[in-house]
Amino acid sequence: MSGSLVFVVALLIFVVVTLAKGVRILPQGEEWIVERLGKYHSTLKPGLNIIIPYLDNVAYKLVTKDIILDVQEQEVITRDNAVIVTNAIAFIKVTDPVKAVYGVTDFAEAIRNLIMTTLRSIVGEMELDEALSSRDKIKARLRESIADEAVDWGLTVKSVEIQDIKPSESMQRAMEMQAAAERERKAAVTKAEGEKQAAILEAEARLESAKRDANAQVMLAEASAEAIRRVATAIGDQPGPMMYMLGEKYIASMERMGSSQSAKLVVLPADLQETIKGLLARGKVAV
């Protein structure tokens, strides 16, 4: 191979390498940062771009589409010293590639850490119940708090979503024990209230029964008094009917005694007629 041919081949290789280094075709959704001799020079946009080989260097390639950042789960302490576990997901977009590259070492990790610290700060100002029920409020405050920092880094925070916010395992066990104790307390109170109402109703029933018994006895006494008064009025000065009634009751009493199962022996007067007469006679004398 002659020297001239070698020179031509080397020249062709140099031209090909130079063109390869000088022509840059960027896909849609990306922007590249070009440095010239170690200093920022320009930003390449999607499409065909020409740079000076050997002087310019593509230092960074950035994606300008929305970036999804997963913020890992972390434990957060609320204002009332309860431990909850929360994580989030953020949607950001690079709007200024120069600031994104030169404003912070790693903008994705910076945003992730900023979200974690801000989330701890926001939840730390809330009590447990408020934190568990204020997901939208936390989300809004979180986005508002990190928006200014993100702008300084050439980023736009499009949305921040709270994925999970729940008590820690130890906190869940404590809450379950507390709930069980509260249910047992309510059951005990309900049982005691039931027993109290039952005792009150039972006492009221006894009181009502006693009142009715007393009223019944009064009514019976009044009825007996009225019956005696009427009998006395009907009999007048004649003791015979009254003696007859006493003899009739005497015989009825003796019959009940004889029919009783516990009665083993019933002693009757030998002469029942004379006995009744005697009773009538004594009654007559008494009258």
UniProtKB/TrEMBL annotation:
Domain Band stretches: 21-179
Localization terms from the record: Membrane
Chief location category: membrane
Domain of life: Bacteria
Membrane topology classification: Single-pass membrane protein
Entry-linked CDD domains: SPFH_paraslipin
Record Gene3D superfamilies: Band 7 domain
Ranges annotated as spanning the membrane: none
InterPro entries according to UniProt: Band7/mec-2_domain (IPR050710), Band_7 (IPR001107), Band_7/SPFH_dom_sf (IPR036013), Stomatin_HflK_fam (IPR001972)
Record Pfam families: Band_7
Protein name in the entry: Band 7 domain-containing protein
